[in-house]
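agent: user wants the structure for Ras-related protein Rab-7b from Drosophila ananassae. delegating to structure tool.
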Amino acid sequence: MNSEIKSIFKVIVIGEMGVGKTSLVKRYVERRFSIPEIGTVGVNFCTQDVEVDDRVITLQIWDTAGQERFVCLSSCIYRGADCCILVFDVTSRISFQALDTWRDEFLIQACPRDPVHFPFMVLANKVDLDNRIVSNREVKEWCRRSNNIPYYETSAKNGCNLDLAFKTLSRKALQLD
Ligand code: GDP
Ligand code: MG
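agent: tool returned. relaying C-alpha coordinates verbatim.
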Protein backbone atom coordinates (compact mmCIF):
# COMPACT_ATOMS: atom_id res chain seq x y z
CA MET A 1 0.00 0.00 0.00
CA ASN A 2 1.22 3.47 -0.83
CA SER A 3 2.23 4.90 2.54
CA GLU A 4 1.41 8.41 1.38
CA ILE A 5 -2.24 7.52 1.12
CA LYS A 6 -4.11 8.11 4.33
CA SER A 7 -5.42 4.89 5.82
CA ILE A 8 -6.64 5.82 9.30
CA PHE A 9 -9.90 7.73 9.50
CA LYS A 10 -11.32 9.41 12.56
CA VAL A 11 -15.07 8.82 12.90
CA ILE A 12 -17.13 10.71 15.49
CA VAL A 13 -20.46 9.28 16.67
CA ILE A 14 -22.88 11.86 18.08
CA GLY A 15 -26.57 12.25 18.93
CA GLU A 16 -28.83 12.52 21.96
CA MET A 17 -28.25 10.40 25.00
CA GLY A 18 -29.95 7.00 24.83
CA VAL A 19 -30.29 6.77 21.03
CA GLY A 20 -27.94 3.77 20.93
CA LYS A 21 -24.52 5.20 20.00
CA THR A 22 -22.56 2.95 22.33
CA SER A 23 -24.69 -0.07 21.42
CA LEU A 24 -24.19 0.54 17.68
CA VAL A 25 -20.43 0.83 17.99
CA LYS A 26 -20.29 -2.28 20.19
CA ARG A 27 -22.45 -4.22 17.76
CA TYR A 28 -20.33 -3.17 14.79
CA VAL A 29 -16.92 -3.71 16.37
CA GLU A 30 -17.59 -6.56 18.80
CA ARG A 31 -20.47 -8.22 16.89
CA ARG A 32 -22.69 -8.35 19.93
CA PHE A 33 -25.51 -6.48 21.59
CA SER A 34 -24.91 -5.83 25.23
CA ILE A 35 -26.44 -3.52 27.75
CA PRO A 36 -23.96 -0.64 27.92
CA GLU A 37 -22.67 0.52 31.27
CA ILE A 38 -24.81 3.35 32.47
CA GLY A 39 -23.18 6.73 32.86
CA THR A 40 -20.09 6.24 30.75
CA VAL A 41 -18.24 9.52 30.95
CA GLY A 42 -16.35 11.33 28.20
CA VAL A 43 -15.44 9.33 25.16
CA ASN A 44 -14.88 5.69 24.23
CA PHE A 45 -12.50 4.89 21.50
CA CYS A 46 -12.04 1.79 19.34
CA THR A 47 -10.76 0.80 15.94
CA GLN A 48 -12.10 -1.38 13.15
CA ASP A 49 -10.51 -2.35 9.84
CA VAL A 50 -12.70 -2.13 6.75
CA GLU A 51 -12.03 -3.49 3.28
CA VAL A 52 -12.88 -0.96 0.59
CA ASP A 53 -12.24 -2.12 -2.96
CA ASP A 54 -8.66 -3.43 -2.82
CA ARG A 55 -7.64 -1.41 0.23
CA VAL A 56 -7.92 -1.93 3.94
CA ILE A 57 -8.50 1.17 5.99
CA THR A 58 -8.79 1.61 9.73
CA LEU A 59 -11.69 3.46 11.26
CA GLN A 60 -10.95 5.09 14.60
CA ILE A 61 -14.40 5.30 16.11
CA TRP A 62 -15.02 7.86 18.86
CA ASP A 63 -18.19 7.21 20.82
CA THR A 64 -19.06 10.31 22.81
CA ALA A 65 -21.10 10.37 26.00
CA GLY A 66 -22.85 13.23 27.75
CA GLN A 67 -19.91 15.52 28.25
CA GLU A 68 -19.69 16.28 24.54
CA ARG A 69 -22.00 19.17 25.40
CA PHE A 70 -19.07 20.94 27.02
CA VAL A 71 -17.55 23.03 24.32
CA CYS A 72 -13.92 22.51 25.29
CA LEU A 73 -14.11 18.73 25.39
CA SER A 74 -16.09 18.48 22.17
CA SER A 75 -13.73 20.67 20.20
CA CYS A 76 -10.81 18.50 21.36
CA ILE A 77 -12.69 15.35 20.39
CA TYR A 78 -14.10 16.63 17.10
CA ARG A 79 -10.90 18.20 15.80
CA GLY A 80 -9.36 16.30 12.91
CA ALA A 81 -12.49 14.21 12.31
CA ASP A 82 -12.76 12.67 8.85
CA CYS A 83 -16.44 11.65 9.15
CA CYS A 84 -19.31 12.11 11.55
CA ILE A 85 -22.20 9.75 12.28
CA LEU A 86 -25.40 11.42 13.49
CA VAL A 87 -27.55 8.95 15.39
CA PHE A 88 -31.17 9.26 16.43
CA ASP A 89 -33.78 6.85 17.77
CA VAL A 90 -36.82 6.26 15.50
CA THR A 91 -39.03 6.01 18.61
CA SER A 92 -38.02 9.50 19.79
CA ARG A 93 -39.00 12.57 17.82
CA ILE A 94 -36.91 14.77 20.09
CA SER A 95 -33.79 12.84 19.16
CA PHE A 96 -34.62 13.34 15.46
CA GLN A 97 -35.29 17.07 15.90
CA ALA A 98 -31.94 17.40 17.65
CA LEU A 99 -30.03 16.36 14.51
CA ASP A 100 -29.81 19.95 13.22
CA THR A 101 -28.14 21.10 16.43
CA TRP A 102 -25.76 18.16 16.52
CA ARG A 103 -24.71 18.72 12.91
CA ASP A 104 -24.30 22.49 13.36
CA GLU A 105 -22.40 22.16 16.65
CA PHE A 106 -20.16 19.55 15.14
CA LEU A 107 -19.24 21.85 12.25
CA ILE A 108 -18.55 24.74 14.62
CA GLN A 109 -16.33 22.65 16.90
CA ALA A 110 -14.58 20.48 14.32
CA CYS A 111 -14.04 23.36 11.92
CA PRO A 112 -13.45 21.15 8.85
CA ARG A 113 -11.79 22.65 5.79
CA ASP A 114 -14.82 22.02 3.60
CA PRO A 115 -17.95 22.08 5.82
CA VAL A 116 -20.34 21.91 2.85
CA HIS A 117 -18.98 18.57 1.67
CA PHE A 118 -18.01 17.14 5.06
CA PRO A 119 -18.92 13.39 5.12
CA PHE A 120 -21.81 12.99 7.53
CA MET A 121 -24.04 9.94 7.80
CA VAL A 122 -27.38 9.54 9.56
CA LEU A 123 -28.28 6.33 11.37
CA ALA A 124 -31.96 5.94 12.24
CA ASN A 125 -31.57 3.44 15.06
CA LYS A 126 -33.84 1.02 16.95
CA VAL A 127 -35.87 0.05 13.87
CA ASP A 128 -36.45 -3.34 15.53
CA LEU A 129 -38.93 -1.67 17.92
CA ASP A 130 -42.60 -1.54 16.92
CA ASN A 131 -43.37 1.87 18.46
CA ARG A 132 -41.65 3.81 15.70
CA ILE A 133 -42.60 7.50 15.51
CA VAL A 134 -40.24 9.09 12.97
CA SER A 135 -41.03 7.92 9.43
CA ASN A 136 -38.58 6.89 6.76
CA ARG A 137 -39.95 9.67 4.53
CA GLU A 138 -39.21 12.40 7.12
CA VAL A 139 -35.64 11.24 7.56
CA LYS A 140 -35.07 11.06 3.81
CA GLU A 141 -36.39 14.60 3.47
CA TRP A 142 -34.11 15.90 6.26
CA CYS A 143 -31.09 14.20 4.70
CA ARG A 144 -31.95 15.57 1.26
CA ARG A 145 -32.17 19.11 2.66
CA SER A 146 -28.88 18.62 4.51
CA ASN A 147 -26.90 18.32 1.32
CA ASN A 148 -27.86 14.68 0.65
CA ILE A 149 -26.40 13.04 3.70
CA PRO A 150 -26.54 9.24 3.26
CA TYR A 151 -28.91 7.51 5.62
CA TYR A 152 -29.39 3.97 6.93
CA GLU A 153 -32.00 2.38 9.13
CA THR A 154 -30.22 0.38 11.80
CA SER A 155 -30.70 -1.72 14.87
CA ALA A 156 -27.91 -2.29 17.34
CA LYS A 157 -30.06 -5.14 18.61
CA ASN A 158 -30.10 -7.18 15.39
CA GLY A 159 -27.24 -5.47 13.57
CA CYS A 160 -29.20 -4.65 10.42
CA ASN A 161 -27.49 -2.42 7.83
CA LEU A 162 -24.52 -1.67 10.05
CA ASP A 163 -21.82 -3.24 7.87
CA LEU A 164 -23.31 -1.52 4.85
CA ALA A 165 -23.43 1.84 6.62
CA PHE A 166 -19.79 1.70 7.73
CA LYS A 167 -18.72 0.56 4.28
CA THR A 168 -20.51 3.51 2.71
CA LEU A 169 -18.94 5.82 5.29
CA SER A 170 -15.50 4.45 4.49
CA ARG A 171 -16.05 5.02 0.78
CA LYS A 172 -17.12 8.58 1.51
CA ALA A 173 -14.04 9.12 3.67
CA LEU A 174 -11.88 7.91 0.80
CA GLN A 175 -13.98 10.06 -1.52
CA LEU A 176 -14.77 7.14 -3.79
CA ASP A 177 -18.46 8.02 -3.99
P1 GDP B 1 -26.20 6.05 23.91
O1 GDP B 1 -26.50 6.89 25.11
O2 GDP B 1 -26.57 6.78 22.65
O3 GDP B 1 -24.81 5.52 23.87
O4 GDP B 1 -27.21 4.81 23.95
P2 GDP B 1 -26.92 3.30 24.47
O5 GDP B 1 -26.12 2.56 23.48
O6 GDP B 1 -26.41 3.40 25.86
O7 GDP B 1 -28.39 2.71 24.43
C1 GDP B 1 -29.45 3.24 25.19
C2 GDP B 1 -30.51 2.15 25.43
O8 GDP B 1 -31.11 1.79 24.19
C3 GDP B 1 -29.92 0.86 26.01
O9 GDP B 1 -30.86 0.34 26.92
C4 GDP B 1 -29.78 -0.05 24.80
O10 GDP B 1 -29.85 -1.41 25.14
C5 GDP B 1 -30.95 0.39 23.95
N1 GDP B 1 -30.72 0.23 22.50
C6 GDP B 1 -29.68 0.72 21.79
N2 GDP B 1 -29.79 0.40 20.49
C7 GDP B 1 -30.94 -0.31 20.37
C8 GDP B 1 -31.62 -0.91 19.24
O11 GDP B 1 -31.20 -0.84 18.08
N3 GDP B 1 -32.79 -1.55 19.51
C9 GDP B 1 -33.30 -1.63 20.76
N4 GDP B 1 -34.44 -2.28 20.92
N5 GDP B 1 -32.70 -1.07 21.85
C10 GDP B 1 -31.53 -0.42 21.64
MG1 MG C 1 -23.19 5.90 25.11
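agent: one observation worth passing along. Helices lie at 21-30, 71-78, 93-97, 99-110, 136-145, 162-173.
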